[in-house]
Design brief:
The chain is mostly helical and about 160 residues long. The protein has one domain: TspO/MBR protein (Ferritin, Up-down Bundle). It contains 6 helices and no strands.
């Protein structure tokens, strides 16, 4: 099989995984009466911006995944498992926060997502400096989401 075919299959595989992640997360988002009734901190971005940032960051994760796959690291499999775990945890966060309406459990998951993102950066850095640059904004975003999640818990006495 030619390297061009491998690159196309790899790109398609990454795209499918990311699209499934987006679709599952979107399926679990319910911004109905429960969410609307929550007191939210002043620093919460508008919904359209939150969605836009998630999409851009998922594209960055996809590109970082591609760089890892195309690299020669002996840790490639471990790195990709971390990426997969991270995406699965992200979907779980949406499910816990929006569907089960349990911000406290979601907060614990966001802390695990933060740790797995830091691990993704640490294990990817020997593969490519570009992966680090692609994943650092995601780590910052997860930090913001964690602070936002915690603020909602505190403002609404949901502990």
């Amino acid at each position: 099989m030619s390297s061009q075919n491998i690159n196309k299959r790899t790109s398609l595989g990454i795209l499918v995984v990311l699209l499934l992640t987006v679709l599952l997360a979107w399926f679990f988002i319910d911004t109905g009466s429960w969410y609307q009734s929550l007191i939210k901190p002043a620093f919460q971005a508008p919904g359209w911006l939150l969605v836009s940032i998630w999409i851009v960051l998922l594209i960055c994760i996809g590109i970082a995944s591609y760089l890892v796959i195309m690299g020669n690291s002996p840790l490639k499999q471990r790195i990709l498992v971390l990426y997969g775990i991270n995406l699965a945890l992200s979907v779980l966060w949406f499910f816990l926060f929006f569907t089960l309406q349990h911000p406290l459990l979601a907060f614990f998951i966001i802390m695990i997502i933060w740790a797995s993102t830091a691990a993704m950066i640490a294990t990817s850095s020997p593969v490519s400096e570009k992966t680090v640059r692609l994943l650092l904004p995601y780590l910052l975003w997860i930090t913001y989401v964690g602070v936002l999640n915690h603020s909602i818990i505190m403002l609404n006495s949901l502990w």
